[in-house]
Write a sequence for this structure.
């Protein structure tokens, strides 16, 4: 859980600093959404939600948009990540699902933020952003796969 | 069972996010955010500076760094030259001691330079967080200039040591503007990533390349600040107004320092404005 929170804070700082200058926020990779999806696919929604709130707290204080809005916009990524771990698939299958969750999470994040701002950013960069988010989610999932919780019941 | 627990977690999180959003308008929440921003902004700003080389590579994919620097420098020179040219044209029009001339002469009145700490990470918003606030005389509504004394935005919020600047390209930005040659009043609005000129009659003589200046109409901005250049004009006989795209004269992604005209009091016209007149 601590690691998830630290990762969330770092993701918020990177998203609010270096990534935001790559153009409109929507054109850059949605790092917190990608990490929430990838992390949630391995560690479950509890830690993904913690990651989301840590990122949202950082993004909300540096942005005109509020913390609650960021949290709402990032939660679909955590939910998609949780769905990706259903039936406990293996590393490759789970990474693929996490990638899809990252893509959908980034899309949901952009849509929620854009709706709140009253306009949807355009441009080809958006799709690169979604694809990059998917790649980051899949890579995160594959990297932390050994940290997945194991069923410790005696006859499991 | 696990599915139910997961759903409960996510529902709880959604409820918490909703509560945060509901209480966001509470002054205490604003104060807490402002204090946290004092801690977070320098760290994120430091990361932003550290990542500058990588950013340059990404922003100039396929081009050499030297070429990028030279290009940035040339753009700045061009913007400066255009600002001076605009100011000289204003002078020629005998617009007695026009503020544009003051700009070229460097007589901007009280002003402070502010480092750009961060760019708002929220998609769809074009807002900068700058490192000057009320303690430095920054107030809501003051104009903000970029390289070449070009208008880049307006202060929309200021706390003690930091301010937020809405860039001209933001979708919520709209300022009174003036086409320099035809003297046609218009509204310069942001589209989220570019600029467009609204309310210019189709019959008005407008050509690509024409300079767009800020207008004092309404007293919200000082007149004569360089704001952009007409890029494309489309007129249709059945429409009252022309569709005009305006290109900014500075790269809003590269702003590192901005100049805030703290001597300008919005709404008071030129009384307390540029040059202290």
């Amino acid at each position: 859980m601590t690691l998830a929170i630290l990762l969330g804070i770092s993701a918020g700082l990177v998203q609010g600093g270096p990534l935001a200058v790559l153009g409109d926020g929507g054109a850059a990779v949605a790092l917190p959404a990608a990490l929430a999806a990838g992390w949630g696919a391995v560690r479950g929604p509890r830690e993904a939600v913690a990651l989301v709130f840590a990122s949202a707290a950082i993004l909300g204080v540096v942005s005109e948009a509020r913390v609650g809005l960021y949290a709402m916009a990032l939660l679909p990524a955590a939910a998609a990540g949780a769905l990706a771990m259903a039936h406990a698939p293996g590393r490759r299958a789970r990474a693929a699902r996490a990638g899809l969750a990252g893509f959908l999470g980034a899309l949901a994040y952009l849509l929620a933020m854009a709706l709140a701002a009253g306009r949807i950013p355009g441009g080809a960069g958006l799709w690169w952003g979604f694809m990059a988010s998917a790649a980051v989610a899949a890579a995160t999932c594959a990297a932390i796969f050994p940290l997945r919780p194991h069923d410790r019941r005696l006859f499991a | 069972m696990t599915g139910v627990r997961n759903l409960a977690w996510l529902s709880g999180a959604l409820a918490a996010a909703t509560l945060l959003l509901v209480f966001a308008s509470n002054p205490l929440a604003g104060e807490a955010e402002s204090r946290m921003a004092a801690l977070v902004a320098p760290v994120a700003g430091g990361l932003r500076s550290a990542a500058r080389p990588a950013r340059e590579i990404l922003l100039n994919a396929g081009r050499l760094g030297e070429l990028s620097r030279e290009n940035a420098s040339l753009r700045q020179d061009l913007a400066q030259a255009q600002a001076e040219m605009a100011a000289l044209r204003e002078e020629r029009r005998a617009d007695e001691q026009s503020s544009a001339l003051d700009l070229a002469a460097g007589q901007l009145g009280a002003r402070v330079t502010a480092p750009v700490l961060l760019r708002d990470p929220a998609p769809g918003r074009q807002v900068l967080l700058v490192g000057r606030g009320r303690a430095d005389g920054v107030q809501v509504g003051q104009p903000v200039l970029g390289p070449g004394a070009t208008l880049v935005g307006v202060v929309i919020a200021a706390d003690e040591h930091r301010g937020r600047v809405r860039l001209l390209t933001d979708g919520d930005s709209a300022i009174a503007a003036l086409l320099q040659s035809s003297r046609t009043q218009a509204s310069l609005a942001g589209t989220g990533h570019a600029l467009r000129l609204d309310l210019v009659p189709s019959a008005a003589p407008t050509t690509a390349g024409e300079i767009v200046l800020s207008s004092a109409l309404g007293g919200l901005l000082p007149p004569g600040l360089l704001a952009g250049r007409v890029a494309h004009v489309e007129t249709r006989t059945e429409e009252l107004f022309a569709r005009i795209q305006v290109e900014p004269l500075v790269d809003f992604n590269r702003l590192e320092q901005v100049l805030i005209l703290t001597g300008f009091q919005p709404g008071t016209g030129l009384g307390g404005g540029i040059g202290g007149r």
User: Anything to note?
Assistant: Helices of chain B lie at 2-22, 27-50, 52-59, 65-92, 99-104. The radius of gyration of chain B is 21 Å. The longest strand of chain B covers residues 150-158. Chain B touches chain A through 52 residues (CB under 8 Å).
